[in-house]
Structure formats: C-alpha cells, structure tokens
Amino acid sequence: MAIASNTPVPTPDGWVNAINLRVGDLVYSSEGTPQTLRVVQDYIPTVCYRVTFDDGLSLIADGKQVLEVQDPKWRQRYAAWHKSNRLKPKTSKKRMRRPMSTITVKDLYAKPLMSADGKRSTYTVATTKPIQYPSVDLPVPPYVLGVWLFTKGKRHNWIHCDRLDLIQRKMRRHGFFVTPGKQSHSKQIFNIRPSVKDSFLFMDANIPVSLPFYYVQASVEQRQQLLEALMDVKRIRMDGNGLIHSYFNRQWKECRKIQAVVESLGIKTNVYEDKKSFGFRVKYRVDPHSDVFPSRYVRKVEKIQPKQCVHLAADGKIVVGEGFIPIC
Description:
By secondary structure, the protein is α+β, with helices and mostly antiparallel strands. The protein has helices spanning 72-87, 105-110, 142-150, 164-173, 196-202, 213-216, 220-233, 252-264; strands at 2-4, 8-11, 14-17, 26-28, 34-36, 39-43, 48-53, 58-62, 66-70, 101-104, 124-126, 157-160, 177-184, 187-193, 237-239, 242-249, 269-274, 279-284, 295-304, 309-313, 318-320, 325-327. It is built from eight helices and 22 strands. It has a six-stranded antiparallel β-sheet with strand order 8-7-19-11-9-10.
C-alpha cells in the first residue's frame, strides 16, 4: 500500500498523516475494526497518480497501489442478489459469492473509465463499513445535542411543524422534553428541558457553539444518533434516484464535521459551495432498500509529479483519506 505521505489516516487516537505512522500503530480496516500496522516505509516513486472519485475526493498513490473495484457486471450481479434477499429473505442466497476484482492504479490509468455512451462510470470502489471508534462519555445524548444544534436560530430553536411530534417522541426516550412555543406559518419555536446548556455545565464541559469533535469521533451508535437527529430536523427532497438528505452551514469546517460523521458510517457524501445561499452544503443518501452497492465511482486517473509516498501493510485493507477509502 503506497500512498502520498500527507494522506490523512484515521486512528483510534485521531487523524495522523501517513508519514507520521509507525510500526505497531493502530489503524482501521475496511470492516471498521482496528488493526496493527506491520510495515511502514517511506520513499519517492518514479511516478505518481491521482485517482479522483465522483464525490470530489481523491487519492494520491504510486502505480503499484492496488484497489479493489467493481465493474458493471459485478454491480448487476449485486443488484440481483440484493433484490432477491430483500424480497425473499428466507429462500434467497445468504451471501454474495462473486468476489470483487483488484487492479493497480497504473493499470486503472490505462483503462477506459466511462461506458461507450459516456453516461456511466466503469469502476467503483466500495465505501468502508462503519468505523468502530471507542464509546465516549458524553455530557448530552448525541440525538439531543443534534436537535439542539441543528435547529438553533439567532434567538430560538425552531422546527417545521410537521416534525415536532416525531422530535418530541424521540427526545422523551433520552429523558428530555420539548415544550412548544409560538408558531409562525409552518415554523414552530420550542424549548428543550432539562436545559442542554445546564447539562454541559453540570459535566464541567464548555457549552458548544458548534459540533464538538469528540461527538464526531464517538462510537457507531452515538454517531448514528447524531445523524438520526440531522435527518429528523431537516426536510428531505426527492430526485430521480430517490431520497436526498442535505445539511447547510455558512462555515466550511462545520460541513466538514458532518461529512466526517456521515463518511465514517460508510455513507458517501458530496460537499460543495452553495453560492446562492452563501455557504456550503453536504448531500448524502440513506436508503437501506437500495439495490445499489455502497461505493464511489472512479471519475479520473491522471499522472502527477512524483511525491513522497509511504508503503503501509497490515493484516487487511486499510482505510485512508477523508472519505475512508479502502486500499489493498
């Protein structure tokens, strides 16, 4: 595994550039579990490649780097298998038997990346399984904090009226209550009791004005609660391919935090500048019934100037980069 030395790699202790890793350090596998690094060696190759995916993320590696990919035939087989499992779970096959194929970045560079009609990408790379960060003792349940942060206005917390009943039921499960206030058109002002601010002060923690990083790297269940809150308070729109969830913020770093939460759960995102609203937006899809394998499309492979790379080896595939991209 030979990737650029400045590639960020997630570890149980936080993000580390590949050049700073050492033998014995813990990194995450494509299954989301920690594993030990066996080999770490830095060098400068004769040529490097940049692999760009459809969500805008990219990976810099030398030509010998191996990726596990799916071609159109594999994706068709998966769609048929998944649909059979979904419609007839008792009589269908229990697992997908067709293995993915492996290819070096150098060989990928020489192959056509789009179909003959130019409408579909040829190769896709799987997303990671949920990253198993350790559980964190949090001042406020992630769902409660998410509702409080994602509905916060200049003076009050507000939500669309059609979402209020759902939020009230779920907040009660965590020992918090939602008190409705004034209503203006389709928007409902509300208060949360006990106070979220008082809960942070009681735990001797700073009152957050944005999403704290220790919530971003909490356990799978805790991050799922945070994502659930985001999906509950934001309206969902439809396009030709199904449901689209969207998060908007004027601060780039806040969108990057949401991206980190969603990507670490194995869900592909797309982060871009929303010029009309003067901010940034994160888009993603959560559809457990979809017959599409969770993956990102390879859009472009290009040669670039050689950069310092790091060869990493562990017992299994390692996830690297901001999108938790698995490499062999």
